[in-house]
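Dear colleague,

Following up on yesterday's call, I've attached the two folding results inline so they're easy to grep. Please treat them as preliminary; we haven't cross-checked anything against experimental data yet. The first protein's sequence and structure tokens come first.
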Amino acid sequence: MSLSKLISLLLVCFCVSFAQDVRVYAIVKGQVKKVYVSEGQRVSKGQTLVEIDPALYIAQREMLIAQLESQKLTLEKVEKDFKRYEELFNRDLLSKSEYEDWKNKYEKEKNKYIAIKAQIDELNKLIEYCTIKAPTNGVIKKLFVKEGIFVNGTMLPQVLLTIEER
């Protein structure tokens, strides 16, 4: 066998890819609404595999949106008051202690608003995570879920399925 044929044969051997199992997890909780795949099915990266009902997160988000609106009104009122007291302080008509009290009250209300907004952003992300997508191309090797069951990936990420990467 010639050296060039031997090198070609070695290159072919090293280019063979080996299948690798990829576990797909849920980090949310809820009832499995729909399983779009079955064992042995070929899937593409980004393909929807499982949909978990986001109703729990949507309800929490709606409640927080109402709180955010209320907090916005409170913040606007406290901000106006703070600006008035700041103006009095700047004209030496208000003690530093009273000024700092109003400044702290304003900062506290502003931080409450920011915290509620962050919770809404987090819930939006969790709602997005209720749609489980394939992280890679492959074949569904094993399904661990079926429609109607409750998953609770919030305590410990829950394995939904295994994809054999190809």
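Below is the second protein, in the same order (sequence, then structure):
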Amino acid sequence: MTTQQGETGGDVGTVELRGKVKWFNAVKGYGFLALDADNSDAFLHVTTLRQAGHEDLKPGATVTCAGVRGPKGWQVMKVLDVDSSTAVATAPKPPPVPDGIAMGDYIAALVKWYNNERGYGFVTREATEGDIFVHAAVLRRHGMESLAPGQKVMIRIAEGQKGLQVVEIRAA
């Protein structure tokens, strides 16, 4: 079989592809390459990447692979080579800063749940229905490490893009 670059492929039905990583998220378990031949996308699943001995890919890294064209486009079936020297340096994202200005005084709230690994959770006001988002960056700014379900806290809130969120917090 002849590939896009004119070389013979090893697996029946596959084509040798080469492209740069558009993005890859190991947590989500997949990412996409922008193919050199026509800049179309090729889907890359983390299990395929792991079979080649890699856990993650940085944007811009060059990947040579065997792929197939399916009804939804190209899919990488086997990673043949990864050249990380072409990857572009990405600056770490700063923690998100809550938008909005605190409304009113501190109010009593109860922690509904909080996930340390994800870095966020929700609290509820004792007298009012509705959840209020709380982000780990707010905790850190106010000297708190984590929250536990049922914990009482004092909060100041603001209207964010997706609803109410905690902008200031302290122990009750």
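For the second protein, one point worth flagging: The chain has two domains: 15-86, 103-171.

Best wishes,
A.L.
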